[in-house]
From TrEMBL:
UniProtKB keywords: Membrane, Transmembrane, Transmembrane helix
Species, as recorded: Penicillium atrosanguineum
Keyword Membrane on entry: yes
Annotated TM spans: 12-36, 48-67, 88-108, 171-194
Protein's UniProt name: Uncharacterized protein
Length: 237
């Protein structure tokens, strides 16, 4: 059993607190949609499924992060396996966040929705790591991990770029919100990968870069969820 030091206990408590908030928020988000905005017509089923996948997927992601904070202590999980699960979880989170844009930005084009969703799903699955692509302690494989992450991000942004290029006023707010969350989350991810505070020795007893990334990501997802709910209300009668 892995010894619980004051350092990793503090890190796990901070991470668990952020994860509990995210899980609670998006569970309530999903419950609110199911209770007050569930569709009454068959035509709105794709939109409803997109919101359910978004809220439920992010809730499960936070629940997975929460378990990740403590199960390595109980089961002595190797750091490589932890890093592998984190990288895979990040790619899946991008897929979950992109689903509402694919559905709501092209409500009258089911074939385009299917094409974007299928392409993104294939790319995400194809880039899921079988072994850790990047470890914070080493820069050897940073290029490969960055390339895979960039390919998923660029494809997830394609529907947003498509919509903004067509200048559709009714969809611009959701497209801009998704672009904003991807930009801020990417900057937070780069900050974590570089770990400047830890490298210069400013913080030796905890991981501020990791917690900062989670905080920025959580704030961005909460802000983005408001645009998703507004789009759902306008598209789901």
């Amino acid at each position: 059993m892995t010894a619980i030091t004051s350092r990793n206990l503090r890190d796990r408590v901070i991470g668990a607190t952020i994860s509990c908030f995210g899980f609670a928020y998006f569970s309530i988000f999903l419950l609110q949609f199911l209770l007050f905005h569930f569709p009454s017509s068959q035509e709105s089923i794709p939109e409803a499924l997109a919101v359910i996948a978004f809220g439920g997927g992010i809730s499960l992601w936070y629940l997975g992060v929460l378990f990740h904070q403590f199960f390595p202590v109980l089961h002595n999980e190797h750091s490589e396996e932890q890093q592998n699960s984190l990288q895979a979880g990040g790619l899946v989170l991008i897929w979950v966040a992109a689903i509402p844009t694919i559905v709501f930005l092209f409500p009258a084009q089911p074939l385009l929705q299917l094409g974007y969703a299928s392409a993104l799903t294939v790319v995400v699955i194809g880039n899921l790591p079988e072994e850790p692509l990047y470890h914070p302690a080493s820069d050897a494989s940073l290029g490969e991990f960055s390339l895979r992450l960039a390919s998923v991000i660029l494809l997830s942004l394609t529907p947003t770029i498509h919509t903004l290029a067509e200048s559709v006023p009714s969809s611009a707010s959701l497209a801009i919100a998704f672009g904003w969350i991807m930009m801020t989350s990417l900057l937070a991810c780069v900050f974590y990968l570089l770990q400047p505070l830890e490298r210069i020795g400013l913080f030796k007893t905890w991981q501020p870069s990791l917690h900062g990334m989670y905080l920025v990501l959580t704030y961005s997802l909460v802000a983005y969820s408001k645009s998703v709910m507004q789009a759902a209300i306008s598209h789901v009668p």
